[in-house]
Design goal:
The chain is an alpha+beta fold and 252 residues long. The protein has one domain: CNF1/YfiH-like putative cysteine hydrolases. It is 20% helix and 36% strand. It is built from 6 helices and 16 strands. Strands 1-2-3-4-16-8-5 form a 7-stranded mixed β-sheet, sandwiched between helices. Helix 3 (144-151) packs parallel to helix 5. The protein is globular, with a radius of gyration of 17 Å. The protein starts with a strand and ends with a strand. The relative contact order is 0.19.
Length: 252
């Protein structure tokens, strides 16, 4: 049984030469006591939500059966993520770790598991190529965006959705994080703020900065804060729950 609710959200994003004003009609729906947030139908993007039942604690085969039964997809795949830069194309080795994918198969769903990191979904205008990246601060410091968008620049992935992730207000960081980026030749000062000795990182702006340097034409769509919206999302920094994640699921 599906139960539908609607969230009407207006966003304005100002970032260097990118200026976007748009309306997102986000639909919250429920199937078998699992809640989801629908973001888009072209491509399909949904996010599993916090609720009576947690989609992420199902085992992989259960998630796959659920997706095939309730969304009519041919298959479903997610994978072990390790805050690295490895991504697969079409097929993957289940014994290996990945933090992203680039696919072109229609009606086959892929999931990114996060609990404060950024799930980044990108696609081309013709909806023939779809990329998903798990972008936490560790992956960003290792260059997952530069490496992935650079490697697949010919796929014209000019549309991007940033899923639920932690906002600057709640993202306290230490000097060790700053040093990780410094060792890669990156200066984070413009993305940091310090109040009463507490340093906070704007990971949203950091991610946008990296995308804009690679493809300034990108349309960036921004999502909600995983920490602040406790009724909707799981947050590692807020809850410290190891096995509960928001899964951003997408397919062509």
């Amino acid at each position: 049984m599906k139960r539908n609710f609607h969230l009407n959200v207006n966003y304005q994003v100002t970032y260097k030469i990118v200026w976007i004003t748009y309306k997102v009609d986000m639909e919250i729906f429920q199937i078998e006591n699992f809640r989801f947030l629908r973001i888009s139908r072209m491509p399909n993007i949904i996010v599993s939500l916090r609720g009576v039942k947690c989609f992420s604690i199902l085992d992989f085969e259960e998630r796959k059966r659920f997706m095939r039964k309730n969304f009519g997809v041919k298959g479903y795949r997610d994978f072990n993520q390790v805050h690295g830069t490895a991504i697969f194309q079409e097929t993957h080795d289940p014994t290996l770790n990945y933090d992203g994918f680039l696919v072109s198969e229609n009606n086959f769903a892929y999931g990114l598991k996060t609990a404060d990191c950024i799930p980044l979904i990108s696609w081309n205008d013709d909806l023939t190529n779809l990329m998903g990246l798990h972008c936490g601060w560790k992956g960003l410091s290792k260059g997952i965006i530069e490496e992935s968008f650079g490697k697949f620049s010919g796929f014209d992935l000019c549309n991007t959705y940033m899923g639920p992730h932690i906002s600057k207000k709640f993202f306290e960081v230490k000097e060790d994080l700053i040093e990780k980026f410094s060792k890669q030749g990156e200066n984070l000062q413009s993305f940091l703020s310090s109040v009463d000795g507490v340093i906070r990182l704007d990971i949203t702006r950091l991610c946008l900065d990296k995308i804009s340097k690679i493809n300034a034409k990108n349309m960036v769509q921004q999502s909600l804060c995983s920490y602040a919206n406790s009724e909707l999302f799981y947050s590692w920094r807020r809850d410290q729950e190891k096995d509960r994640r928001n899964i951003t699921i997408t397919w062509l």
